[in-house]
């Protein structure tokens, strides 16, 4: 069932999502060669709790940490560990969620670590741009497939591939609500978008082939060919006119800059 949110509920979701953005901004301050992903998790966990919220990921389905930290070929759901130490030229996707006032915030950003190659920068730019291409289709009367197709066309035209096994989703009092929001599909297909729907749009785009492998830890998903993957996510509300972006990259970009 799809739950349409009231204006008041959307404001509460905005607050939860803004806290996610601020948390990502705190991580932007410390992401550099030599730091391990468990350190990032501890900073995020403390920051979220200090602001009166609960990390949405911690304990979700048995997940053991407060953020997902996925490095290089890891697409999503990488478990933070002191054994995973960032090095110059890496990229790291941080997926973060909060529960604040009964509603969930959910957003993700892929960070370059130090100086990365031009080829890597192009992957990050394309994936991030495709997120906004998808959001532009998130208007009342359109269908989920319009978002999906826009992202797929934008990325495949630039010779990247779209992960099929993992998709975006509705969001609200629960982190994963209906409908699913794939990053691939046919225009005019899927659920029609209505006023008050809140969805997370999250392109997961591979440098090489689209196939992925689910690792033995039960969480980490990586590219089968071990080429890089990037991931960006915004939570948006479907409202009259254009969608309202509830999450934010403002705090990240104030630290790391807007361009790769």
Can you offer a commentary on this structure?
The chain is globular. The mean pLDDT is 98. The strands form four sheets. A five-stranded antiparallel beta sheet has the order 8-7-9-14-15. Strands 1, 2, 4 and 5 form a four-stranded antiparallel beta sheet that branches. It has a three-stranded antiparallel beta sheet with strand order 3-12-11, with no helix packed on it. The chain is built from five helices and 15 strands. α1 crosses α2 (37-50) and α3 (118-136) runs antiparallel to α4. It has helices spanning 7-28, 37-50, 118-136, 144-156, 250-256, and strands at 54-55, 67-71, 74-76, 91-100, 103-112, 161-162, 168-170, 177-181, 198-201, 204-206, 212-214, 221-223, 229-231, 234-237, 244-245. The longest helix has 22 residues, at 7-28. Helices cover 29% and strands 24% of the residues. With 260 residues, it is α+β, with helices and mostly antiparallel strands. β4 and β5 (103-112) form a beta hairpin.
Name the assembly state: single chain
Structural class: alpha+beta
User: Which strand-content bin applies to the residues?
Assistant: 15-25%
What integer is the average pLDDT? 98
Briefly characterize the structure.
The protein has 260 residues and is α+β, with helices and mostly antiparallel strands.
Tags for this model:
four-stranded antiparallel sheet; 5 helices; five-stranded antiparallel sheet; 260 residues; 24% strand; 15 strands; alpha+beta
Topology:
Blueprint: H1 7-28, H2 37-50, E1 54-55, E2 67-71, E3 74-76, E4 91-100, E5 103-112, H3 118-136, H4 144-156, E6 161-162, E7 168-170, E8 177-181, E9 198-201, E10 204-206, E11 212-214, E12 221-223, E13 229-231, E14 234-237, E15 244-245, H5 250-256
Antiparallel strand pairs: 1-4, 2-4, 3-12, 4-5, 6-10, 7-8, 7-9, 9-14, 10-13, 11-12, 14-15
Helix pairs in contact: 1-2, 1-5, 3-4
């Amino acid at each position: 069932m799809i739950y349409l949110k009231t204006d008041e509920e959307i404001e509460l979701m905005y607050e939860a999502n803004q806290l996610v953005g601020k948390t990502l901004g705190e991580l932007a301050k410390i992401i550099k060669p030599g730091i391990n992903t468990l350190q990032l998790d501890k900073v995020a966990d403390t920051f979220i709790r200090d602001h009166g919220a609960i990390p949405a990921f911690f304990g979700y389905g048995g997940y053991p940490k407060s953020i997902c930290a996925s490095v290089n070929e890891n697409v999503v759901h990488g478990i933070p560990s002191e054994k995973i130490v960032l090095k110059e030229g890496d990229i790291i996707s941080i997926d973060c969620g909060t529960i604040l006032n009964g509603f969930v915030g959910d957003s993700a950003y892929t960070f370059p670590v130090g100086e990365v190659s031009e080829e890597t920068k192009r992957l990050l730019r394309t994936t991030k741009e495709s997120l906004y291409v998808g959001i532009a289709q998130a208007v009342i009367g359109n269908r989920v497939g319009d978002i999906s197709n826009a992202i797929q066309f934008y990325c495949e035209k630039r010779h990247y591939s779209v992960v099929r096994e993992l998709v975006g989703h509705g969001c609200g009092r629960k982190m994963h609500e209906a409908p699913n929001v794939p990053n691939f599909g046919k225009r005019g297909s899927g659920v029609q978008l209505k006023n008050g729907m809140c969805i997370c749009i999250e392109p997961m785009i591979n440098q090489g082939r689209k196939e992925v492998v689910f690792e033995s830890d039960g969480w980490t998903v990586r590219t089968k060919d071990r080429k890089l993957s990037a991931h960006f996510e915004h939570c948006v509300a479907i409202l009259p006119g254009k969608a309202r972006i509830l999450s934010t990259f403002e705090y990240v970009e104030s630290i790391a800059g807007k361009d790769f």
